[in-house]
Amino acid sequence: MSIDLAVVPVAGRGTRLLPLTKSQPKEMLPVGRRPVVQHVVEEMVRSGVRRILFITGAAKSAIENHFDIDAELIAHLRETGKEDLLAELAFERENVDYFFTRQRRQLGLGHAVLCAAPMVGDAPFVVALGDSIIGMGDASDVTRRMIDEFDRRSADAVIAFQEVPAEEVVHYGIAESDGKPGDVFRLKRIVEKPSVKEAPSRLAVAARYVFSPKIFAMLRQTQAGKANEIQLTDAIQHLIASGGGVYGVRLAPGELRYDIGNYESYFRAFLEFALADPQYGGEVRAALKRILD
Ligand code: G1P
Predict the structure, then answer these.
(1) pLDDT above 90: residue 83
(2) What pTM value is reported for the model?
(3) What is the separation, in whole angstroms, between the first and last Cα of the chain?
């Protein structure tokens, strides 16, 4: 089975990255040569997705502009003999349709996903958080693996997980596995941002989900939870409690997750992508060495 629709929530204000994000979406911050959200879209396209629905918000129009075909810019590059730069715009011509809807009230990630319901209809879909990159370049096929497991197990949801240090569980949805967790495991419970003491494991939700449309019924009955927001994690817990088949797929050891929601991991992500740049990586490495020595 293939799933051709990805919902990409990009409505969050990015307050942890102020002042960078005052008038610029965090999803448009550069990581290496691309804005974060272009990395996410390219990952989706590699997984077979052909329709992308962005759940946007105020001050996010740069995202729409980025995925437009900019005929004027293309003509300008041709006229000024900069044809070599046209390759940098090749992503504009990907075989993808883009859709945009506004989350008109900031009621949380669960509410953002619920905004997709009228568009999704009755088919399974992917949710890819627009501020997180998984793997560098084409190093990750985790969404593809998740879609395969969704199909094989006739699941209601499949979620990507990554093991995090104990003190970091407070930032993530955390899973309790039904039995000893292997690379793929069934969830017994999931809890949003537990304290270190309450956390049932160190398996943290890693920004990618595959859902059957059943999640919408769960979201509709989900009350505001942590941070007084409608939490996607709480709707997933309802799905588990109602007998739904919810599975986790672990990221492979080399499949790193880059979270562009805070400065610490944003700086690290930028540095790693800059170091891996085929043209400038060597110079960046030499410059860093000089600084550190
Ligand atoms: C959201 C989810 C959380 C998940 C995290 C990373 O939190 O609520 O369960 O672990 O994304 O995928 P946020 O980073 O928006 O606070």
Answers:
(1) no
(2) 0.95
(3) 53
Q: What are the residue boundaries of the structural domains of the chain, listed by start?
A: 5-292
Q: Dihedral (C-alpha) 50, 56, 61, 63: value to the nearest 10 degrees? A: -40
The rounded Å distance from CA 109 to ligand 1 centre is 8
CATH architecture label of 5-292: Alpha-Beta Complex (3.90)
145 Ramachandran zone, left/alpha/beta (phi>0; psi -120 to 50): alpha
Ligand 1 residue neighbourhood (C-beta within 6 Å): 109, 129, 172-173, 192, 204-207, 231-233, 261
Q: Report H helices in 121-231.
A: 142-152, 214-220
> Rounded to an integer, what distance in angstroms lies between the CA atom of residue 241 and that of residue 247?
13
pLDDT over 90 at 43, yes or no:
yes
Distance CA 110, CA 107 (A): 8
What pLDDT shows up at residue 91? 80
Q: Is 31 a residue whose pLDDT tops 90?
A: yes
Average pLDDT for the chain? 94
Cα-based distances in Å from 232 to 61, 113, 192, 293: 25, 8, 9, 46
Half-sphere exposure (Cβ direction) of 131: Cα atoms closer than 13 Å: 24
Task: Please state, in angstroms and rounded to a whole number, the distance separating the CA atoms of residues 43 and 66.
Answer: 16
Atom of ligand 1 nearest to the CA of 12: 15
